Amino acid sequence: MNVEDEIFSIDSEEEFTKTALKIYEFQLENCTVYREFVEKLHRNHPKNIHEIPFLPISFFKSHLVKHINITDFEATFLSSGTTSSERSKHLIPSLAIYQRAFTKIYTSKIGNPTEQVILALLPNYIEQGSSSLVYMVQNLIEQSKNPSSGFMLNESHKIKNAYDLAILEGKKVVIFGVTYALLDLAKKNMDLSKAIIIETGGMKGRRKEISKAELHQELKRGLSATRICSEYGMTELLSQAYSDKDGLFSLPPWMKILCRDTNDPFSYVESGKTGGLNVIDLANLYSCSFIATQDLGKMQGEYFHLLGRFDNSDIRGCNLMVE
Questions:
Q1: Which pTM value belongs to this model?
Q2: Domain(s) of CATH 3.40.50: residues in the chain
Q3: Residues whose CB falls within 8 Å of the CB of residue 176, separated by 6 or more in sequence, listed in order
Q4: Topology of the domain covering 97-232
Q5: Residues 138-179: pLDDT tens digits?
Q6: Given 3-state DSSP classes, what are the helix, strand and coil percentages for the chain, each rounded to the nearest 5?
Q7: Could you count the other beta carbons within 10 Å of the beta carbon of residue 139?
Q8: Is the Cα dihedral 282, 268, 50, 40 positive or negative?
Q9: For 40-93, how does the pLDDT look when each residue is reduced to its tens digit (9 = 90+)?
């Protein structure tokens, strides 16, 4: 079994740990940025996943985090941002891995796209281009093979028409949307009660930030919706987590969240306590699978709550890389 197949066939904690440590050794040898970071920390012999060093996510803005011998890339994904801000860059040598990851996760958590009409309200991502989220949703739309599926740009009447037609055809409707666009839609007070709404986060400077609970309450009220989901993903990751009820995010078998102490990046807090989120995404085979994000959250069993972002984008104790 090759390593890609091994990643997507993980079905136990033991297999996850074994594969994670194998990928750690692979990336230590083949990703220069990660190797230099680990060497600065003098922590290059982990015995378990809690001892693995996590690369600060900001390195995807300042460095090319990639396999040293790969020079041909099928895509380059850029993070969303303003024209004045530096955008993270994720070089993708194989889109097949990304497609395999998001299709398997989506089918497991949301449903089979061939049975759905998928609508997308992601205006800022489309405007800025090179979005991993747009690529994923476009691919899911293509998998749906339904002419009513597609991207919508502030066209509430088209959304309603596509929704009504899908319900008549006996199809399930899924609406992906950035937070501010979904709130704009909710102002129309239209009945989308049979749709699965998936908010992808982000006001993008358009509105004041609000909590997930407040957001979901507004969307349920304005769209008569009974099911509001959230998607947790980012440019620097090839896998996603989805939340359904109670705001709890669940993970695919090849992905794991560790909650670090906000004052000590090498210590972890116990379940139920707030900390910084470290993500292991084994699908990131050819970049870095071990990333210290700027997100705050807490674990609840095998699930996690997303609580917000660090006020300061610098993650303490991790800025050891020599430029």
A1: 0.91
A2: 97-232
A3: 118, 119, 120, 121, 122, 137, 198, 200, 231
A4: Rossmann fold (3.40.50)
A5: 999 999 999 999 999 877 889 999 999 999 999 999 999 999
A6: 35, 25, 45
A7: 17
A8: positive
A9: 998 889 999 999 999 999 999 999 999 999 999 999 999 986 544 689 999 999
